[in-house]
What does this fold into?
Amino acid sequence: MTRILLLGGTTEAGLLARAIAEAGLPGIYSYAGRTDAPLDQPIPMRVGGFGGVEGLCAYLKAEEITHVIDATHPFAAQMSGNAVAACAATKTPLLALERAPWVAGEGDHWHHVADIPAAVAALAGPPRRVFLAIGRQHLDPFAAQPQHHYLLRLVDAPTGPLPLPQAEVIVARGPFDVAGDTALLRQHQTGLIVAKNAGGKGAVAKIAAARALGLPVLMIDRPRLPKRQVVTSVKAAMDWLHHTARLGV
Ligand SMILES: NC(=O)c1ccc[n+]([C@@H]2O[C@H](COP(=O)([O-])OP(=O)(O)OC[C@H]3O[C@@H](n4cnc5c(N)ncnc54)[C@H](OP(=O)(O)O)[C@@H]3O)[C@@H](O)[C@H]2O)c1
It folds into this structure.
């Protein structure tokens, strides 16, 4: 009997959950619990960490999971690494549904950095108006560059003080569109965008808006992940599910 654990938190995971529901396959959608009101999914949901690799192994056994699909954000490296380790330990088939990274084209002015500390270091210098479009989890390190005025776009309103002395918060949930993001950058007189190379369509509007306005982007490249089987479309993920289920894996 097939029983799928879908590690989610992305638009693509939502699309896959819909395909799983439409195929009538039993599955559970897992959220980390980072946002106050996670979007409803068409399959049963659970919320919260598993307790590291050990906790995930125990969960896979207790819930008799036969397939794991990791459709987390490309920067959710801890979860993805844990999934690789737990699936190897429990011999549970694992597939990653990954979006292709964005690639700079004509008109883009990207400066690549490897990670958050490198992005912080690259912000040394005179004050600027910065759209810090990286979510709310990793804001603390940017306190080392307090001279800038930061624009933040967060899914939930912050509950406590922000670590940045000059910050303005917009509460909004994607997907965003190019016209809206162009207007936003103009309105805030943004001079620089800091972004994670998330890939996909939901967050790309700010990158296209930066291109349209000729603004530079400090692009944080993706973290390295352990080797795993990867597909880039919901259809390919469904094919993998049907194929492995047919083989009795
Ligand atoms: N990182 C981003 O920029 C970003 C952007 C958009 C959405 N998201 C989504 O937000 C969630 C958290 O991302 P993150 O970067 O904080 O992850 P992370 O650093 O890789 O994960 C940290 C811990 O959070 C728990 N966790 C993460 N994803 C989970 C999931 N889908 N279900 C259950 N537990 C999960 C795990 O806890 P235990 O070790 O206790 O199991 C994991 O070890 C993910 O679902 C991701 O898809 C992340």
